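Hi,

I'm pasting everything inline rather than attaching a file, because the server keeps stripping attachments. The sequence lines come first, and each chain or strand is labelled.
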Amino acid sequence: MSAADVIATALIWIGAALILLAGIGVLRLPDVLTRANAATKATGLGLAVILAGVAIEIGTTRAAVVLGLAVLIQLLTSPVSGHVIGRAAYRSGAPLWEGTHTDDLATYYERTELDGPRD
Amino acid sequence: MTLLDPPLLAIAAAFLLALVRVLRGPSVADRAVAADVALYGAIAAIALLAVREGSEQLADVTLVATLLGFLATVALSLLVGRRGS
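And the predicted assembly:
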């Protein structure tokens, strides 16, 4: 294996580990906002790192340009989508975790709590 | 390229965990977030397939799917917000 192969493989492994973390976080964390937090950060960076590793591994200029663009778009849009879905969830009254101790938005939005068990 | 198999397994595990959250809910936003994770896992798997095949065309798929995932999330969040107001 050349040095480029080693770097690419390491990047791909790191990215896959981050995506696995996102999957665990989405399943295990207690409410929507924490789940969106885990999902956005882990998938945003994880996918970007994997795509960078793939670009190194394929090694052609065209693949590097396309995948570099994908990485850039991913890094720009993933925080935005996380913010937007969290805001919508909060405003639609998704239940917060019992351990939540500071709710700075409480004075800005009227929330109607959803009924039904929280999971 | 057997070195790509463990990452693929990790991504598949993440996909299944996210699918469990999609099925369990409880709110639409939970499902949207989990479906997002599943989609990004699928994109990563496509990227690894591109490495295995040595194919540049499959790299194009990841670019389009990334944009599509963002649009889908924003549309879903509008839907969630409208239902609550």
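Chain B touches chain A through 55 residues (CB under 8 Å).

If the labels don't parse on your end, tell me and I'll reformat.
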